[in-house]
Design a protein that fits this description.
single chain, mainly alpha, Farnesyl Diphosphate Synthase, globular
Length: 365
């Protein structure tokens, strides 16, 4: 049975999707970069080799739409930078699935992952290995361009997030080969790693130019807010990608499978339970943002500029979640071939309506 055959409760998304006005320039640029990296068929340059996608497959993923929806306020250069990262993350995912998950070659996956680690250099200008495939070429290019001076503080933490992402692929493969379904309690923290969710707060920062103030960054409330933010994106993806992951890739690392196995319930009960869990995590995000964060702001004595910066970051986080939701429910990567794409998800989204008032915590003293 597939998820599309189950009557689903609705995934809750209270924030309206907003499109970045610079979307039209992304598609041609992204195809050029993907070809240069050797990710697309038809590349006759020095990076030619086994491609990851055909041109039609690449455009069907609508990665440009994903980037424009999740980063509606980003300037053109920042939008382009994050767009290349999104392409690379999907390239890694599809390459890993085709090369290692479908063959079950765990030793080769370990070797591939160890080489990728050698590209994640903590210092700018450090020598990198010579790339031998499209994924390595892509990460090498990102290491050279992802950390301009104004984002220098990103390097160590962002690369740590990337390390968690690629390591999680090996753990997923080991689980699938052994038939070990992750435990429900352990799965949510693991999914933050395997979805590259730890990179998302930095993408929001890139889009808004705002950071969570240092005074509160490591508090319980902010950690809880970030955990809920990351859980929503990765766990919702499991529902959207269930058929692809479970039926095509024979993967056991999926929230629906985890819930069904942990609770001993069939698919037609596990899918609604997964939806309710995702909705509960989004309610946690709202509760922390509305109820606990304003109290923390007052106790911490944030000044006006710091409150403004925090509000800008929160608006960006809400926009990021709504953009992902729109992509999950509209991109051909997740929509079954016999299903229609909702009208509101077709075409190029414009600037759209502003974020709803409920999307942003009230931080005024």
């Amino acid at each position: 049975m597939t998820v599309s055959a189950v009557e689903l409760p609705e995934l809750w998304m209270p924030y309206p999707v907003r499109g970045n006005p610079y979307l039209p320039g992304l598609r041609a640029e992204s195809e050029t970069w993907a070809r240069e990296m050797g990710m697309l068929d038809g590349d006759e340059g020095p990076s030619a080799g086994r491609a990851i996608w055909t041109r039609s497959q690449f455009h069907a993923m609508t990665v440009d739409q994903l980037t424009a929806w999740t980063l509606p306020d980003a300037a053109p250069a920042d939008l382009s930078l994050n767009h290349r990262f999104n392409i690379w993350a999907l390239a890694w995912d599809d390459y890993f699935a085709a090369t290692f998950k479908r063959t079950g070659d765990l030793p080769a996956a370990l070797e591939f992952t160890a080489r990728l680690h050698s590209f994640l250099q903590p210092e700018p200008g450090a020598p990198l290995p010579e790339p031998v495939n499209a994924v390595e070429r892509g990460i090498a290019d990102l290491q050279r361009n992802l950390f301009p001076p104004r984002l220098a503080h990103w390097r160590r933490e962002f690369n740590s997030a990337l390390a968690k992402y690629i390591d999680a692929g090996v753990l997923e493969l080991a689980n699938s080969l052994s038939g070990r379904v992750p435990d429900l309690i352990e799965y949510a923290p693991f999914r933050r790693e395997s979805f590259a969710a730890y990179t998302a707060p930095y993408s929001v920062e890139l889009s808004t130019g705002a950071r969570i103030p240092e005074k509160i960054r490591h508090t319980r409330v902010v950690r809880g807010l970030l955990d809920a933010f990351m859980d929503v994106m990765g766990l919702a993806n499991d529902i959207a990608s269930y058929d692809r992951e479970v039926h095509e890739e024979h993967d056991v690392n999926n929230l629906v499978v985890v819930i069904g196995t942990s609770l001993g319930i069939p698919l037609h009960e596990a899918v609604p339970a997964a939806v309710h869990l995702v909705n509960a995590r989004l309610r946690d995000f709202e509760r922390l943002g509305h109820g606990e964060l304003p109290l923390l702001v007052r106790r911490s004595g944030l000044d006006g500029d710091e409150r403004d910066e925090l509000e800008a970051w929160l608006r960006g986080a809400c926009g990021f979640l709504s953009g992902l939701h729109a992509w999950y429910t509209g991109a051909p990567r997740y929509v079954p071939a016999d299903a229609s794409v909702p009208e509101q998800h077709r075409g190029d989204a414009g600037e759209g309506s502003p974020a709803s008032p409920s999307a942003v915590a009230r931080l005024s003293p």
